[in-house]
Amino acid sequence: MRIIRRTRTVLGALALATTFCAYAQSEGRPWIGTWTAAPAHLSRPAHPGLAPDFVGITVRQYLFTSIGGDAARLHFSNQYGTTPLTIANVRVGFPDGAGNIIQGSDVGATFGGNASITIPAGGTVMSDPVHIAVPAQGYLAVSTYFAGNVPVNDVTAHVFSSQDNQFGSGDQTAAPVMSHPTWFEEYFFLTGVDVQSTDAIGAVAAIGASFTDGFESPPDANRRWSNVVAARLATQGLKVGVLNQGLSGTDLLVDQELYGDGTVHRFDRDVLSQPGIRWAIVGEFNDLGAGNGDDLITALSSLVSQGHDRNVRLVCATFPPVYAEGDVEATRQRYNAFVRSAGSGCDAVFDEDQILRDPDKQNYPLPQYQRPRDANGNIVDIHPTDAGYQALGNGLDLGIFSQATPVAADLPSTDCVQGWTQGETLHVGTLSSSCDGRFLLTLQGDGNLALYQGTTPLWTSGTNGRPLIQGQMLPTGNFVLYDVSGRPLWATNTDGHPGSHLLLQNDGNLVIYDHDNAPVWNTGTQR
What we know:
Largest sheet: 7 strands, antiparallel
Structural class: alpha+beta
CATH topology of the largest domain: Rossmann fold
Shape: globular
Number of helices: 10
Number of domains: 3
Oligomer: single chain
CATH architecture of the largest domain: 3-Layer(aba) Sandwich
Radius of gyration: 23 Å
Helix content: 10-25%
Strand content: 25-35%
CATH superfamily of the largest domain: SGNH hydrolase
C-alpha cells in the first residue's frame, strides 16, 4: 500500500525522466575522463599536519584538464572513510592566475538534483552533469563545503599532487576570493572529472608510482610527463583524455598504508573503470627488489590480459634507471627485457629506460636528468629533473592513438541506454525510466527501491520502513542500498564481478551484467 500511495508522484515525473534519458545519450555525447587524482588512505591522527578537520570548511581544489567538453561531471570518493561524509555545497568555476574565481564563471553542482549529499563509508558519488564549457589544457576550480559535525579521521586523499589548493572556514564556495585561506598540496575526496564531447577518441590512464605521479615536479606548473603527453596530443589534433593515476610510493603487488593500494589491486578501479577508457600505460613501482622478478612479470601479464578482456590496449613502460645495483639491477634488466619481448602481450612499449639512461652507465640516468646530490656527494633523490619529465613526455610514441575513431561512433544504435556503472548512484526521489518510457525505477521515501510498469509495481527491494539515502553500483559488481547513516541495508550480493553495470531494460527487467555482458543478477520482471 505504501508503494501505491506514491504512484501519483511517480507518474507526474515520468515525462521528465524519459526526456533526460534521451538527452543524455541520443545526441552521441559520451562521457570521457579529462582529469583524475588516484585515491589513497590518509589517517588524520597519524598524519595530522596533512589534512584539515572536515567540519564546517570549504576546500577549493584546482585541476588542469587534458581535453575539453560542453559539460562536466565530478567524482567524489569516501572509499577509505570509516564514517559517512557530508558534502553540503559544490561549485565549479574558472580561476584566475591567483586562484580566485573569475566573477560570474562558477555554477553549482548537484547530486540527484540536490545540492548536498552524504557519501557512505567506503562509497563514491558522481555529480549530475554540470553545464559549463570545460576548456582543454586549462584550469577548473572545484569548491566544496563540508558541513558535517563529526571529524573525518580516515580521509580519502591524493597526497603528492604538485598542485597548490586551499581551504577556509565556513561556506565560501561562492566567494570569488577565499577569506583567510590555508594552502596545501593534497587533493581531498575529489578523484575525477569527466567531460561530454562528440569528437573525443577516448581516454588513456597512466598508472604507476612517483615517476608517473610527477613527484618533485614544480607545483602548479603541470610539468608531469603525462601533462607533456596531453599537450602533444592536443597539438596533433588527437582528442584523448589523459588521466594520471600515479601514486607516489605505491607498489605493484603490495598495498601501503599511506601511499595506497598496489597497482594490481587498483587497476580495475583506477584504469579499466574510467569513462571512455581505451588505452592504459603501466608504469614503474616501488617493489622492484621483491624476488627475482617472476612475480612482477606475472603481475604485468595479468594486467595486460585484464585490459585486453575489456578492449583496452596496454602500453607497458620499462623500468627507468634508478641507480640500482646487484640483484635489484638484475631484476630491473630482466623485467625490461620481458616488456620489450614479443611474449609480453603489450600493444606498445614506453621505453622509459632508454629515454633516460646514460649509455655509459646504464643504471644511471643522463646527467641532465639527475637531481643534485648532497654535500657529501650522495644520491638523495632518484626522480627526474624537469628536463627528465619533459624527455619522458616527448618520448612516448603517439602512434597507438592515431587510428582511433571518436568514442561517439561506438555508441549503441539505440537512442538511449539507461544504466549505472561503477560509482554511479540512485538517490531518494530520483526517477529513472527505461528508454522506451514504459518502465520506471525509483528509490522511494518509504525506503523501497521499486520498479513500475505504468501504475503497477513489478518489484521492490522489500526495505520499506527503513529510511534509505542512496543506492550505488560498487566497483566489485555489487549494487547496495545504504541507510541515512551510511550502513548497507540491502544488496544484490554480486561481489566478484568487477566492471559490472546495472541496466533498466525496455523489456522491464532490471539486470546486472558483468564486463563480458553476461547477466549475473536480475529482477525477473521482463514483459
